[in-house]
Specification:
The protein is mostly beta strands and about 200 residues long. The protein is about 10% helix and about 65% strand. It contains 2 helices and 10 strands. Strand 2 and strand 3 form a beta hairpin. It is globular. The termini are far apart.
Length: about 200
């Protein structure tokens, strides 16, 4: 009997936070550090991103990042000290699929610069965000960039809310360059997000 009570109590503790969880917020600012990798060459970088949801499901988002010599491999130059500076601006729409689940799509313009060489193109992305518990949020997305010869991006994020409106973000992204055979880059991100 005591075991049954213990199991029921544990289940209640797990279900209660989920019931209190809200739909994911599209109003936030985030700063992060990044670890980028291409065939064994690993470099550090940093980034800023944000989103604002002014009305209904409409939102605007932006992203800025700087990463070291991984960018040289994309150009076929091997290791180097040049920095990749990339940024994008999007407009999107999110749909609250359930109390704790949001589906979204966004499209915009992306630019990257390496050693003064600049390349721009359109960007599209579709994804899902899910508040698994009141303190956890999961995100998965697939996107496509027309810049840098065109590539697909697969990404995921886990958010841990440890203070009101504040969360630790851990993310992973992989870029596959179809025009360059098996060329790909990957990035791990660790950041701090403030939602409002």
């Amino acid at each position: 009997m005591n075991k049954l009570i213990a199991v029921m109590t544990l289940a209640a503790l797990m279900i209660a936070p989920a019931a209190l969880a809200d739909t994911p917020s599209f109003n936030y600012i985030q700063a992060d550090i990044q670890r980028a990798d291409y065939t064994g060459d690993q470099q550090w970088g940093w980034g800023l991103k944000g989103s604002i949801n002014p009305v209904g499901g409409l939102f605007f988002s932006g992203n800025y990042s700087r990463v070291n010599s991984v960018a040289n491999y994309i150009q076929g130059n091997g290791p180097g000290t040049d920095q990749l500076t990339a940024y994008r601006a999007d407009v999107g729409y999110e749909f609250d699929f359930a109390d704790t689940v949001a589906l979204y799509g966004e499209a915009g313009w992306a630019t990257a610069a390496i050693s003064g060489n600049r390349d721009s193109g359109s960007h599209v992305e579709a994804g899902i965000r899910f508040n698994a518990l009141s303190i956890f949020e999961l995100r998965a997305a697939i996107g496509h960039y027309d810049r840098s010869g065109g590539f697909d991006e697969y990404s995921g994020t886990v958010l841990l809310h440890f203070l009101p409106f504040t969360a630790i973000s851990v993310g992973y992204a992989r870029d596959d360059y179809g025009n360059a055979g098996s060329l790909h880059t990957s990035r791990w991100q660790l950041g701090l997000r403030w939602s409002f």
